[in-house]
Structures are given as structure tokens and as C-alpha cells.
Design brief:
This protein is an all-alpha fold and 261 residues long. The protein has one domain: Up-down Bundle (Methane Monooxygenase Hydroxylase, Chain G, domain 1), CATH 1.20.58. The protein is 63% helix and 0% strand. It is built from 14 helices and no strands. The protein starts with 6 loop residues before the first helix and ends in a 5-residue tail after the last helix.
């Protein structure tokens, strides 16, 4: 590493600050739209980075580090929600000045957000088809689709702690949705009653689920506020599709166990 490295060199600011190319005829508000979405992609990248670290630490039973990592992700999610307040300063009229110029571009095409959904267990094979013309992205998403989800790693950890997780769950087809399981709920109930450190980790995982749902909800309301019920950019169904994703729990057992308290 060069001893003469500057702040700008280290952060690649020349590249980053030249990456806001407006497609409209210099519409003022398009700059905000671009910057906000670029920042979201950076946060998605950081969350994926943290989740990879989390699974490595969980495999080594380093629970304190896992909790610290989840705590960081939760702070990022709160920041992502608050950024919507800034985006909502973009009025429907402001947005309409450059919306048509976006053409087929859509947040629906975010590879990183799809990877995050897959990792959290919301796996939909149909999503792979939207990236068939992008070989690298398609391969990356296929790998995520065929890899264990967050909850699979968590159940494996519980099993290593000599808790009787059913074998069919430990060896399940990880491409399938996560379904609630009464035996796991019973184990979680005992964890909450008798294993406070594990219970704290469980609560952070619920916080993660809730944090994603909070961001989804605010995102839906922002889209409704900006374009109403119109079709989204890129031909997506806009708010209608986003609404269909609301209140989907990634970790149903951790929610269902509350009925036993």
C-alpha cells in the first residue's frame, strides 16, 4: 500500500462522485433519486457482508460476536427506514419530470436485495428468470437460491447445542420456503424459559424480521405517495407487488412460540 495514499484514493471518490449520471434533461430532483438508491445498494452490500460474517461466527458458536453483528444490521435497517424521509421530499410532480426517462430500469432488478431475500429464506425461483440476460448476476443469485438460508444456519447451531432439532429440518431442501414446526416451537419455548443467552439471540432475530418488515412497509407507503397505484418502472406492478410482500415472516417459529407464553 502506498504511503502517499490520499483520502480520495482510499475511498475511490473520483469513481463514486462521477457515478450520478442523470438521464433526464438536467432535472434537479433526479440527483436525489440516484444518490438515495446508490446509498441503498451500499447498505445492501454491507448487510450481506455482515450476514456472511454472522454465519461464520455462528458456525464457531461465537454468540457474543453474532449478537454484536445483528445489532449492527438492525442499526443499518433503522437508517434505511429514515432515508425514506428524505426520498419523500421528492413530490409526485417532481418525480414525474424524469420518471419516463427511467424506461426499463426498476428497483425490482436489484440483485443485492434479491440475494438478501434469498438468504433470509424468501426464495422464489421465478426471480431468477428476471436476470437471465445477466449471466454473472444470474449465477450469483442461483448460488444464493441453492444455499442454506439464515434460519437453516440457526437451526444447525441449535442442533450443535444438543437441542433435538428434527433431522428432516437439518437436511431439508433449502430451496423451499421455511415452514413452521411445532417441535421447533417447543424447543424455542424451553430456550426462552431456561437459556437467557440463547433467548436474547432469538429476540434479535425477531428484531431482524421486524426491521425488514418495517422497511418494506415504509417503502410501500413511499411508492404509493409518489406514484399512487400506477404501474412501476420497468413494467413492475409497483405498489401492488410491494404490498404482497408485506407481513411475511421469515422466521415463523419465532413468532408462533409467543402463543405459548
Amino acid at each position: 500500500m502506498s504511503q502517499n495514499m490520499s483520502y480520495s484514493d482510499y475511498l475511490k471518490l473520483d469513481q463514486i462522485l462521477k457515478a450520478q449520471s442523470r438521464v433526464s434533461n438536467d432535472e434537479h430532483d433526479e440527483m436525489l433519486f440516484i444518490v438515495i438508491h446508490q446509498v441503498y445498494e451500499l447498505w445492501f452490500k454491507q448487510i450481506l457482508h455482515e450476514m456472511s460474517f454472522f454465519t461464520t461466527q455462528l458456525e464457531q458458536n461465537r454468540i457474543f460476536q453474532c449478537q454484536a453483528t445483528l445489532g449492527r444490521v438492525l442499526k443499518i435497517l433503522k437508517t434505511m427506514v429514515s432515508q425514506l424521509d428524505i426520498l419523500e421530499t421528492l413530490t409526485p410532480l417532481n418525480y414525474s419530470t424524469f420518471r419516463d426517462q427511467l424506461r426499463s430500469s426498476s428497483g425490482f432488478q436489484s440483485v443485492q436485495f434479491r440475494k438478501l431475500e434469498f438468504f433470509l429464506g424468501f426464495k422464489n425461483e421465478k426471480m431468477l428468470s428476471y436476470f437471465s440476460d445477466q449471466p454473472e448476476a444470474h449465477a450469483d443469485l442461483t448460488k444464493a437460491y441453492e444455499s442454506p438460508a439464515f434460519y437453516d444456519h440457526f437451526l444447525s447451531y441449535l442442533s450443535r447445542c444438543e437441542l433435538a432439532i428434527p433431522e428432516e429440518l437439518l437436511n431439508r431442501d433449502v430451496r423451499c420456503p421455511i415452514e413452521p414446526n411445532e417441535q421447533v416451537e417447543e424447543i424455542l419455548f424451553e430456550i426462552y424459559r431456561n437459556k437467557p443467552n440463547m433467548a436474547n439471540l432469538c429476540e434479535q432475530i425477531v428484531d431482524l424480521d421486524e426491521g425488514i418488515q418495517e422497511w418494506r412497509y415504509r417503502h410501500v407507503k413511499m411508492v404509493e405517495r409518489t406514484i399512487g397505484s400506477k404501474t412501476g418502472t420497468g413494467g413492475s406492478s409497483g405498489a401492488a407487488y410491494l404490498k404482497s410482500t408485506l407481513f411475511r415472516s421469515f422466521f415463523p417459529d419465532l413468532w408462533n412460540v409467543r402463543n405459548r407464553f
